[in-house]
Amino acid sequence: MSLYQFYRDPYQTELSTQVVSLDEQRLVLEDTLFYPHGGGQPGDTGRVNVGGRTVDIVDTRYSKDRSRIEHHLAEPIDASPGDSAELTLNWERRYRHMRMHTCLHLLCHLIKDPVTGGNVGAEQSRAEFDLSTPIDKLELEAQLNALIEQGASVSTEWLPENILDEQPDLVRTMSVQPPRGHGDIRMVRIDGLDFQPCGGTHLKDIREIGAVHIPSIKSKGKQNKRINVELVD
């Protein structure tokens, strides 16, 4: 299976690659560091240099048929297939997304009820659960920070998608199902705590999340609750 560089090394911030195509201001490259919007995680931003000219990448998304990743440019550039391209990732923003995304997986460990939604943001993230019993905000925050301080390694692996048919309980998120039809499903494992399908970028260890704050738990239905999470720093 051929993987993009953001999967091979989510901590890499610069990459030399080549242009595949340019359609208006949507640039396709042979390889990329930039994670495309999906699974509740925003697309990456940063810069690209082609032919000595540097322009901002303001968003990264899959094409409509999901066959390629398109880097949305802030302004037009001249580029032809085969041209060299130098990528620089907005690392501060990406790293916050990684910390937030891994944190939401920890919430899934602490709350065993079905996950009904989620969204990753650099400033605030949220996860929604169909709760069977009430949750105390301060107690949940304390449990979350205790887990983070304890630490646990994070790793990824690929499983045949028929495994999900045999073990449907692995899919915790009802609103965002893992992509099917490609033979394998990417799984994220937090050692001893959580194991679920996910296409996002994650940390090496949950200690990197740092201290977190839960500013609110909001009702979004009779049992559906939205838990908002913020990074303290």
TrEMBL record:
InterPro entries according to UniProt: Ala-tRNA-synth_IIc_core, Ala-tRNA-synth_IIc_N, Alanyl-tRNA_Editing_Enzymes, Thr/Ala-tRNA-synth_IIc_edit, Transl_B-barrel_sf, tRNA_SAD
Keyword Transmembrane recorded: no
GO cellular component assignments: cytoplasm
Domain of life: Bacteria
Cofactor field: Zn(2+)
Sequence ranges assigned to domain Alanyl-transfer RNA synthetases family profile in this UniProt record: 1-227
GO biological process terms held by the UniProt record: alanyl-tRNA aminoacylation
Keywords, ordered alphabetically: Hydrolase, Metal-binding, Zinc
Subcellular location(s) per record: Cytoplasm
Example GO molecular function: aminoacyl-tRNA deacylase activity
Pfam families per the UniProt record, alphabetical: tRNA-synt_2c, tRNA_SAD
Protein name: Alanine--tRNA ligase
Source species of the chain: Saccharospirillum salsuginis
